[in-house]
Amino acid sequence: MRQESLKDDMNSFWLENLDRNNQREITKAIATVGRVCYQNDIEFGNTRVSRKHAVITNQKNDLWIYDLSSTGTWVDGIRVKKRAPFLYNSKIEFNGFFGRFIYSLDRVV
């Protein structure tokens, strides 16, 4: 049963970059976050973000963010210690890089 809920395209969520005013649909059950050129699903061009900075898992729209970095990941201003729930309207920050995002199960128009 757990394997079924971690299949790609089973459910998706949207990330909105508030600083750049754009949105992106994430359809993977396990999405990596990191720097450009390191084969991440969500990429940043800023060197303050680690090559493999974090992972977001989506199991039946139950989202969790796992910090893989030594520099830190914050959700709603609280530093992630290993993992944290990624709730509706959560704001995330990677090592002081304020590419803030908000997640939603539906695209915001």
Can you characterise this structure?
This protein has one helix and eleven strands. The chain is globular. Strand 5 (54-59) and strand 6 (62-67) form a beta hairpin. The chain has 109 residues and is mainly β.
Tell me briefly what this model is.
This protein is mostly beta strands.
Chart the SSEs and their pairings:
Layout: H1 2-5, E1 13-17, E2 22-26, E3 30-35, E4 42-44, E5 54-59, E6 62-67, E7 73-75, E8 78-79, E9 83-85, E10 92-94, E11 101-104
Parallel strand pairs: 3-4
Antiparallel strand pairs: 1-2, 1-11, 3-5, 5-6, 6-9, 7-8, 7-10
Order of helices and strands: HEEEEEEEEEEE
**In angstroms, what is the radius of gyration?**
13 Å
* Weakly predicted, low-confidence segments: none
Portion of residues within helices: under 10%
Average of the residue pLDDT scores:
79
Spatial sequence of strands, sheet with the most strands: 4-3-5-6-9
- What's the story with the biggest beta sheet? 5 strands, mixed
Count up the helices. Answer: 1
**Kindly, what is the distance between the CA atoms of the first and last residues, rounded to a whole number of angstroms?**
34 Å
Short descriptors:
mainly beta, single chain, three-stranded antiparallel sheet, 109 residues, 11 strands
